[in-house]
Amino acid sequence: MKILAFETSCDDTSVAIFEDNKLLFMDTDSQIKIHNITWWVVPEVAAREHANSIFWVLENVLKNAKVSLKDIDYIAVTKTPGLMPSLLTGLTVARSLSNILDKDLLEINHIQAHIFANYLERKDEGIKYPLVCLTVSWWHNELYFMQDMFSMIRLWWTTDDASWEAFDKVAKMMWLWYPGWPIISKLASDYSPSSKRESEGGNLFPRVWLKKDEFDFSFSGLKSAVKREIDKRIKENWELNLNDKKEIAYEFQNAVIDVLAYKLINAALKKWVKTVMLAWWVSANDKLIETINKMAIENNLNFIYPKKKIYSWDNAAMVGINAYYKLKKEA
Predict the structure, then answer these.
(1) Is the CB of residue 260 less than 8 Å from the CB of residue 253?
(2) Shortest CA distance to 301 belongs to which of 259, 272, 258, 260?
(3) Average pLDDT value over all residues in the chain
(4) Which of its termini does the chain have fewer beta carbons within 10 Å around, N or C?
(5) Do 296 and 236 share a domain, yes or no?
(6) What pLDDT is stored for residue 194 in this prediction?
(7) Helix (H, G, I), strand (E, B), or coil: what is residue 278?
(8) What is the mean pLDDT of residues 305-318?
(9) Rounded to an integer, what distance in angstroms lies between the CA atom of residue 207 and that of residue 254?
(10) Does residue 282 share a domain with residue 245?
């Protein structure tokens, strides 16, 4: 069974081909350099770039997978959520090929696909249910209770700003590149804490816990705190030097990660599950993985996250693997 998968939900044009659950080849064309100009993805620009690249990406994938369109058995594509102009590009191409080739089309939920990215290069028995999964994206911080592979009960979510958005906005405050989380993480890793506050166990920025024993997320207040600190330092020193940026990045990232890790682990304990899972963009953050892994070990929990960082980002492989398990379930 060969599956052709498309992902165009935001600013990555990605195509993949599977033989059952084995990824034969994937290619992804990123638009990051284009969107650096505007510091965020302009939907109409993203859609135009998808239209310009989707066919040559498809051609490259077919060539490297040594597969022709007539060999395809199923077509899968991201339907929602995402930027509608971007989604429509992939949907139009996938639906057209489905009609031309007379092949069944599977329209995939973007959130579920990111969760299924954890099955890439991992055996089915490697993920034990029930579990609690944290999804971390630009729009979403959500905690899902999953009794099995396809049951997703949303327990808690973002009340205002999500963590990835906060990473991007803080990067913009310090005149850094888009997307924000990779460069913030790099600056944070380069910082060597040596201040009195660090030695005394203090924090530069607050941790927003919200209500006790509830695990919703809020990062708008943290963003405001970072802005005040940046303005204060510029007023005092007439600039924000590199060490300032490293320290702010370090303290900001710790504030975000402390909240994400604590709420994931404690949601799992509250639901009496033995497995926690991480999905979506910020799941590629090394510090977040390290922190959750440490807390999971301390609480005797099994921790699952994508095998490769590329599977955390928007990619067609997660769409294809989601389609494979849907077809397997229906068989």
Answers:
(1) no
(2) 272
(3) 92
(4) C
(5) yes
(6) 67
(7) strand
(8) 95
(9) 9
(10) yes
SS3 label, residue 303: strand
CATH of the domain at 86: 3.30.420.40
The DSSP symbol for 130 reads: S
Strands (E), the chain: 2-7, 12-19, 22-30, 74-80, 104-109, 131-136, 141-146, 153-156, 275-279, 302-304
For residue range 28-73, list pLDDT tens digits in order.
Answer: 998 878 877 777 788 889 899 999 999 999 999 999 999 999 999 9
How far is C-alpha 195 from the geometric centre of its chain's CA atoms? 33
Least confident of 4-8, 106-110, 165-169, 318-322: 165-169
Concatenating the DSSP letter of every residue in 201-256 gives T--SS-----STT---B--HHHHHHHHHHHHHHHHHHSS--HHHHHHHHHHHHHHH
Per-residue pLDDT, 177: 78
Q: What is the amino acid identity at position 136? A: V
Q: Are residues 170 and 110 in the same domain?
A: no
Alpha-carbon span 199 to 20, nearest angstrom:
53
Helix (H) or strand (E) holding 287: helix 286-298
32 contacts 25 by C-beta, under 8 angstroms: no
Strands of 74-80's sheet in order across: 22-30, 12-19, 2-7, 74-80, 104-109
pLDDT of residue 237: 86
Same structural domain, 153 and 292: yes
Domain of residue 52, residue span: 2-117+312-330
Domain match, 112 and 233 both: no
Phi-psi region of 238 (alpha: psi -120 to 50; beta: other; left: phi over 0): left
Residue 208 has pLDDT above 90, yes or no: no
Q: In the prediction, which pLDDT does 243 show?
A: 93
Burial class (CB in 10 A: 0-12, 13-18, 19+), 131: buried
**DSSP code, position 284:** G
- Reported as a pLDDT band with limits 50, 70 and 90, residue 195 is low
